[in-house]
Amino acid sequence: MHNMTIKDAEERTGLSRSNIRFYEKEKLIEPLRNESNGYRDYSENDVENIKKIAYLRTLGISIEDIRNIISEKTTLQETLEKQNEILKSQITDLNKAKLMCEKMLDEESISYEKLQVEQYVTDLCDYWKDNQTIFKLDSVSFLYI
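and the corresponding structure tokens:
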């Protein structure tokens, strides 16, 4: 089977049509057009690339980074080293948050009314600084209202 339809590509990769189309729209794969019917033709190579892209996405690697790997602006090795550091710091942050939740759950009766943030956080300004990523998310949301 040389050239495949999107349905074949879905079956071969186990991914949905909308995922495959998204990678295409992002120019990560560029299947050829079949002259006779105008449909896209997916090659073995396209299928392999779709699998690679989807796998790297599960590791939290951005579309932008994947594009740079494909266009050889950077290597997979460098990207993985960078992503590994990002994941390590996310794990640290998550563990801290988990400990705080556990500490709060240890209280006799915890409620929003009785919650005193200072009880858990000694220096608020530093704490907000350490959690900047969250506030970046919180502060851009007003653009979408």
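(Above: one complete record from the training split.) The mean pLDDT is 91.
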